[in-house]
Design brief:
1014 residues; alpha/beta; 8-stranded parallel β-sheet; 6-stranded mixed β-sheet; 37 helices; binds flavin-adenine dinucleotide; binds iron/sulfur cluster
């Protein structure tokens, strides 16, 4: 495959759009229900002077490169199109300079591309095709007329290039397209098809203005001299009579301001020096220049303004993209762009028009427009799941507040800047430390939809979308049934789960991951008591019995799964009650005894027999006389490694401290307490210490900084919300019972995992504490393993196989006792694995592996939710935010700016649609690979339709190249290539079904067959 895009002819574009609309009720994947219908006649005059039905649209970028991209943006709600920049370097010359993949938009966006990859004349044709397609389809579909849409050209990067034939004739032909070959071609096609159209008339065609653009945004390279920028802008005003806006770089704010602002928002890992700041246009020069240009524009009855802002250049430091420098956009750019807007607005008393782009999304668009800033354009938000359909919500919200341009409200803008700098949503930590949402599974050729929360996130594969829907619909009993199927501690996990599912939730790329834990607790609160009352101990199906040592989450989970499936189980626990760490160590301000008891009753009612206060010196040999299988689930309670180099004995261990605080009269720790560590246990310790009698101040001491803390963001946020101090970049050295000596540190280079090393500065601070608590990770007490003859690894942990069976036959080790300190949900997952093998050995079925039918979900309803940002809500209704990814994924179709991934209906599969990749539309930007929940890359791994032999030969993708006379050249899954006739070729079932469906219903996805091309 190659990154060369092959634009659709206007005829092909229109027949694709109309045929897909007729067949599937969508155009390039945008469903009819997702089309944006403006209020008829409600128009504003924007700061450029265009009459618009919405001041929102795609920024000059990947979404305005091809005609189909621009059409899709229009259908979804865009009415201001900032067309991708053209310059003298174009086509192949430019493509060679752009490394691929060129987009990385996991959280904040990065790209290493700049102007159009097409030739300037191809780009021109695309813009004209888009103009005609919008004119015709807008009218046909009742979405408005094309004169309610702004087509803003974007040109760069120097005057000489602009005056050259290529760019000069581009500009002239955008101002007046009449007579250009593409104008005539589009016109002719429409004329020929007037008979097929219902609302677009001959009169519409005859009155269609050839004046496509009246405005221009000037883009200049970093380092472009001030006088060159002024010369170009003056040329565009005086020679081309265009309303002209100059795109400014955020570097105008100065290095220190940008660094401080980004650090404050948690983007301290972004790497950049001051060279762009000193080489780019300087603020003072800009002010003078903008005054002169404003005066010139006024003289000519034109408008002059600024576009804020360009992307922000940073170094590639973590292998984000295959280039040296990359350009940042999205969330962190908002604060910079608004700060520059404020600075300029103050200098011009609100009189300098601002076209805006940089971190705009549905949750801030109204505030931004209300300052008078307009139009607003977006790129990063529509590169994320939902894609262009996010424009629908943006334009609907914009329409509520939009007004004619009347200057900038400086006070309002100042207040907005203050808000943004303090708003959690713009802080890096808002994304909860998640880098990639992808999971480990290979991407299947067909039937690829999956809910990544459930398959890849949740270690016990809970039916998350199912219980979310049931809970939101008020069906708490059914929801709880679905939860309890896989989860033996629904209430405890409803309160305490570390939620690895959230790290993979598609909603994370919209607004915030679903609060699965809260929903689970709502279901348990509503239905668990009745569920317990209804439990009847199942019949015993075998004489073989299982003995379990340890009644923590792992031991109880194993007991429940075994008993539920017909085995007799006894649990031996050395403490007086159940649930191990959860009951005896985790502070009661996090989980109440009643909540723990509720889960314990699930096991009791099933008929699990518990023995408490047992002799801890268990003997496997003895147990095996009674039990066919033994499970050791004794947890990880050993003292943590020394938190200081000297003075270990002077520190208190976290588990010891929490045991005293929870189970004894309370820990006596003095007035000032330090907790060393940054995991969840450290967070519990510092919060418990602060609540302990006599304590005046409890603090955390950590050698890195907050973003690198291993604790979940939720737990860190709780510590912060309680006002507790976190001393970062301090490495404890010694503690003598009074003075904690720490070396001051700085962050060093990043390792491959993105974690920055710490480097000692050689300077030391003395801090006075009455108690220092070490919370650097408990250890497993391995003596019992040795005593019972279990083989051990170098760390002393029991050697186990994939079913967690130890070296002693039929003896299993699970939970923290196998893993070291981990989480409750992983302990339950361990139990599932070991129990599966035991049940198999006893020839019993495993109920949690036989999944009941999924609840019905309406595809239209799911599509209706796509693209909508919705703030998180507490409790049951939270489930309504779920995007039901197992029923419809289609993320790759949404995030592709070029619409090169297509969902088609193919009978005979589990998923309602299959994904087909169109080679000719893909420029290998890589964006679909970022967001596909599998490990694979849709643009490389899905069945591909090729349009040319070169495309086929340059590629290793599995797929079809149509030849003449119904023949195909096909690359098979084993990468062999064969030529065959339609319906023949001995294709694997999935491929032949997909090809048959394309031939029957989606032939518009083919280009002309290769032999038939001229
Ligand atoms: C302070 C703290 C906070 C935590 N917070 C969370 C959280 O918010 N969310 C989360 O998911 N996880 C959390 N964890 C981790 C979680 O509690 C553990 O991963 C989980 O409890 C492990 O379950 P387990 O059954 O393997 O071990 P344990 O809970 O340790 O249970 C082991 C049981 O075996 C018993 N036992 C040990 N030796 C013997 C013996 N010789 N004979 C008989 N019985 C024996 C113990 O008394 C205990 O009851 C936290 C851990 C700590 C320390
Ligand atoms: S949106 Fe719903 S189905 Fe999709 S990952 Fe999140 S919780 Fe799971
Ligand atoms: S298919 Fe994927 S790689 Fe290709 S253009 Fe679309 S998003 Fe980019
Ligand atoms: S992103 Fe596309 S290829 Fe990946 S699972 Fe979803 S539909 Fe399939």
């Amino acid at each position: 495959m190659s990154d060369l895009m092959q634009p659709l002819s206007f005829g092909h574009l229109m027949s694709w759009a109309l045929e897909e609309l007729r067949r599937d009720g969508s155009i390039f994947g945008v469903k009819e229900s997702q089309f944006w219908h403006p209020e008829p006649g409600r128009l504003i005059t924007d700061s450029f002077g265009d009459r618009l039905a919405s001041p929102v649209g795609p920024a000059a970028g990947p979404q305005t490169q091809l005609a189909n991209n621009i059409l899709v943006a229009y259908l979804a709600g865009a009415r201001f199109m900032e067309l991708k920049t053209v310059q003298k370097i174009d086509g192949e010359e430019l493509r060679k300079a752009v490394a691929k993949p060129c987009i990385q938009a996991e959280d904040e966006g990065y790209n290493c591309e700049w102007s159009t990859e097409l030739t300037v004349s191809e780009a021109y044709d695309e813009y004209l095709k888009a103009y005609f397609a919008i004119a015709v389809l807008g009218k046909e579909l009742g979405l408005g007329t094309v004169d309610e849409v702004g087509f803003n050209i974007s040109v760069g990067y120097d005057l000489e290039g602009l005056k050259g034939d290529k760019v000069n004739s581009f500009i002239d032909s955008m101002i007046d397209a009449s007579g250009t070959p593409i104008f005539l071609e589009c016109r002719e096609w429409v004329e020929d098809h007037l008979g097929d159209l219902s609302h677009f008339t001959r009169e519409d065609l005859d009155t269609l203005s050839p004046q496509v653009s009246r405005s221009v945004t000037l883009s200049t390279m970093h380092g472009c001299p001030a006088d060159e920028i002024e010369r170009i802008a003056m040329y565009l005003l005086t020679e081309k009579h265009l309303r002209t806006f100059v795109k400014c770089n955020p570097t105008m704010l100065g290095y220190q301001f940008a660094r401080d602002c980004l650090d404050r928002l948690g983007y301290d890992y972004l790497s950049f020096d001051d060279h762009h700041f000193t080489e780019d246009l300087q603020y003072a020069d800009a002010i003078e220049m903008f005054r002169r240009l404003t005066a010139e524009a006024e003289k000519r009855g034109l408008s002059f303004g600024v576009k804020l802002t360009n992307t922000f250049p940073v170094e590639v430091s973590r292998g984000e993209l295959p280039s040296g420098e990359m350009y940042m956009s999205g969330r962190p750019l908002l604060a910079l762009a608004l700060s520059l807007a404020l600075k300029l607005s103050q200098a011009f008393d609100g009189g300098l028009p601002i076209s805006f782009s940089g971190g705009v999304d549905a949750l801030n668009v109204q505030e931004i427009l209300s300052t008078g800033i307009q139009p607003v354009t977006v790129a990063t938000t529509i590169l994320k799941p939902g894609g262009a359909t996010r424009l629908r919500q943006l334009s609907s919200l914009a329409a509520e507040v939009m007004t004619d341009y009347h200057g900038i409200d400086v006070d309002r803008l100042a207040a907005l800047v203050d808000d943004v700098l303090c708003d959690e949503r713009y802080h890096k930590r808002y994304r909860e430390k998640v880098h990639s949402r992808k999971t480990d599974s290979p991407l299947p050729l067909t039937d690829c939809y999956k809910a990544p929360c459930q398959d890849g996130g949740c270690p016990i594969h809970q039916r998350i979308p199912e219980y979310l829907k049931l809970t939101a619909g008020g069906e708490l009993k059914e929801a709880f049934d679905a939860i309890a199927f896989d989860n033996t501690a629904p209430t405890i996990l409803g309160v305490l789960c570390s939620e690895p599912c959230r790290d993979h939730c598609t909603r994370l790329d919209y607004d915030q991951a679903i609060d699965m834990r809260g929903v689970k607790l709502a279901a348990a609160d509503g239905a668990q008591d009745a569920f317990i009352e209804a439990i009847k101990p199942p019949a015993l199906l075998t004489d073989a019995r299982v003995g379990i040592i340890g009644a923590g989450p792992a031991g109880i989970a194993a007991a429940i799964f075994l008993r539920r499936n017909g085995m007799d189980v006894e649990v031996f626990e050395k403490l007086e009650g159940p649930y191990g760490i959860v009951r005896y160590i985790i502070p009661s301000f996090r989980i109440t005894p009643e909540q723990i008891e509720r889960d314990y009753q699930l096991a009791v009612h099933l008929g699990v027999r518990f023995h408490f206060s047992c002799d801890p010196d268990y003997s496997v040999e003895e147990l095996k006389k009674t039990f066919a299988h033994v499970i050791i689930a004794t947890g990880s309670w050993g003292r943590c490694p020394s938190p200081v180099i000297e003075g270990h004995d002077n520190s208190l261990d976290a588990i010891e401290f929490l045991w005293q605080a929870n189970n004894e009269a309370g820990a006596s720790v003095g007035r000032r307490v330090a907790v060393i560590g940054a995991g969840d246990v450290a967070m519990d310790c510092v919060r418990t210490a602060q609540r302990s009698e006599g304590v005046e101040e409890a603090v955390l001491v950590y050698r890195r900084t907050e973003p690198y803390m291993p604790a979940t963001q939720h737990e860190v946020n709780l510590v912060r919300s309680e006002g507790l101090t976190m001393h970062d970049l301090l490495a404890p050295v010694s503690y003598d019972g009074t003075t904690l000596v720490c070396e001051e540190m700085r962050l060093g280079e990043e390792d491959a995992g993105g974690r920055r090393a710490v480097v000692g500065l050689g300077t030391y601070v003395d801090l006075l504490f009455d108690t220092v608590i070490g919370a650097t990770g408990a250890t497993v007490e391995t003596g019992p393993y040795a005593r019972n003859g279990l083989a051990q690894n170098a760390r002393g942990l029991a050697e186990v196989d994939t079913s967690f069976q130890s070296s002693v036959a039929n003896v299993y080790v699970i939970g923290d006792g196998r893993l070291g300190p981990s989480t409750i949900v992983r302990a339950i997952a361990d139990a599932k694995t070991a129990v599966r093998v035991i049940l198999n050995n006893e020839h019993l079925s495993v109920d949690y592996d036989s999944r009941p039918a999924k609840v019905e979900r309406d595809r239209h309803e799911v599509h209706g939710r796509r693209g909508l940002l919705i703030a998180t809500v507490n409790g049951k209704a939270e489930g309504d935010r779920c995007l039901t990814c197992d029923v419809i994924c289609e993320v790759c179709t949404e995030v592709c700016p070029n619409r090169a991934n297509v969902a088609i209906t193919v009978p005979g599969f589990a998923d309602p649609a299959q994904i087909v990749h169109i080679d000719g539309l893909c420029n290998e930007c890589g964006n679909c690979g970022t967001f596909c929940p599998h490990a694979g890359l849709p643009y490389k791994d899905k069945i591909t339709i090729f349009w040319t032999r070169e495309g086929f030969e340059d590629s290793t993708n599995i797929g079809f190249l149509p030849l003449t006379d119904g023949a195909y050249l096909t690359r098979m899954p084993d990468r062999s290539v064969r030529e065959h006739l339609s319906g023949q070729g001995d294709l694997p079932a999935g491929m032949s079904q997909v090809l048959a469906a394309i031939e029957k219903d989606y032939s518009f996805m083919f280009a002309a067959p290769v032999g038939a091309q001229s």
